[in-house]
Structures are given as C-alpha cells and as structure tokens.
Amino acid sequence: MTDTKSKGTKLYKLFVYFVLIALAIVIVVPIAWVFLASVKGNAEFYGNPWSWPKSFHWENFTSAWTTAGMGRYLGNSVFVTALSLVLLIIIALPASYVLARFRFFGQKFWNGFFMLGLFINANYIVVPIFLMLLDGDTKLQQLIGHPFFMNNLWVLSLVYASTALPFTIYLLSNYFRTLPASFEEAAYIDGAGYFTTFMKVMAPMARPSIITVILFNFLSFWNEYIMALTLIPGDNKTLPVGLLNLSAAQKSAQNYGQLYAGLVIVMLPTLILYIMVQKQLTKGMTVGGVKG
C-alpha cells in the first residue's frame, strides 16, 4: 500500500513538473523569438522564421525609438504609469488601513461599496467616462475658451488610479487585517498618534502587499490600450497605442525589424520590474493569508 502511494506521489510530481516545463516553454519561446526578430534584417523574415539572425541589426531599435516616435511614447507611458501609481497609493493605503483597523458608522457600507467595484471592468465604462470628460471640455470651451480633460495625460492618470481603487483597497485592507494589534498598542503607549502609527509602524509592515499592488497595477497601466486610445485622441499617445500605429505603418512599409524592436521596447520594462521584485511579489501574495 505504501509503495503504491509512493509511486502515485512520484507520478503526480512528474506530471506537475511536465506541466510547469511546458508552460515555461510556451511563455519563454515567443518572448525569445520576438527578441531575435527585433535584430533581424527585412530579408530574413521571408525565410525560416526560426533561423538565427545572420547579423544583428541594432539600428532597428534606433529607428523605432526616433523615426517611429517610440521614445516619446515611452516617456508618456512612464509619466502616466508613475503618476497613476503615486495617486493610487496615496489614496488607497490610508483608506485600506482605516477600513481594516477602525470601527465607525458606515464601515460596512464602504467595504461593500468598494467590493462592488471589483465586479466592474474598467473597459465597460470607457464610453460614459469619455462622454463625461467631453461634456466637461465643452463647458470649459464656452467658459475659458480652452479644453482640459481630453488629450491630457494628467487626467488619464487620474482615471487609471480611480478605476484601480477597488482592487487595491480590497487587497491592502485584507493584508492590514492580518497584522497583530499589539504593534499599534505599543505605538500608542509610546505616545504615537494615529497618523504616526500608520506611517512609521503599519505602512512599513505592509510593504510586501504594497509591492504586490504596485506590480499588478503597473502591468495594468502600462499595457492599457482602450482608455488611452479613447481619452488621448491627439499626439500624446502611450506605448500600446503608439505600438499599434507602428504596427500598421511598418507592415505597409514591410519593415518588420522596427515593429519587433517596438515590441521589445514595450516588454522590456515589465520584464525588468518583475525580475527585480519577484521575491517580494511571492511574499506579498502568500503572507496575507497567514494569521499571526
């Protein structure tokens, strides 16, 4: 009986390893292919797609960066993503702490209110947001003669942060609930107020969860396309929208090297960030479920 159980366990482990290796291959191979394609010449795309580049055409990146405007689009995406994350953390962190650690009138209502937001996909409310901002610009045009809300990266950042609030508050508040109250009690005994306790004791303890929230929302903001396309109709495009324009232009020009170089420019920041915070991300995803 024991031998049969041991064999079953080994077979299960082999199956798990096989599935994990297969998933790794499915993920790694396309990424590696894009990196290789980004340094190929145009003539090489008409032969074997899996062939190694005959020479490395680094000028594809230079052309994508300058000629195709990917450098400007990258700057816009960095600005929008960074500002969105700053706004999100400034609003969500204290709100999550208050909802998780204090008892007040209407607490259940606000918890339920933010929970409802988890079931609303931001892409489903793009049209109402667009109409609301367009109406605001129409009124501003009549009052001061200049629009403000449309084609504004600051407004796009605010919209990103607002739509990410429900998920962020839900995740952070659940993490704060797992932290022992003894830390707060010790801070109060030492004379610390609520704000000092939050900033110097509780917020640093929530660092793994904060890093997890930042990474998830970074990926969401960085790769977001529909809102950026709808709310930024002018030249202040972000990388995903700029990449679509590059794709259409380079396909017609049959310059595939620049196209894949643009894809690398989009992917590289997310890969670097994930490698940097991988351990903290794993910790943030698991430690919140442990009571202590």
UniProtKB/TrEMBL annotation:
One of its GO terms (biological process) is transmembrane transport. The keyword Transport applies. GO terms for cellular component: plasma membrane. It is found in: Cell membrane. It is a multi-pass membrane protein. It holds the Pfam family BPD_transp_1. The chain crosses the membrane at residues 12-36, 78-100, 112-133, 153-172, 209-232, 259-277. Residues 74-277 form the ABC transmembrane type-1 domain. CDD domains: TM_PBP2. Keywords: Cell membrane, Membrane, Transmembrane, Transmembrane helix, Transport. InterPro entries: BP-dep_ABC_trans_perm, MetI-like, MetI-like_sf. Coiled coil: none annotated. Belongs to the binding-protein-dependent transport system permease family. This is ABC transmembrane type-1 domain-containing protein. It comes from Schleiferilactobacillus perolens DSM 12744.
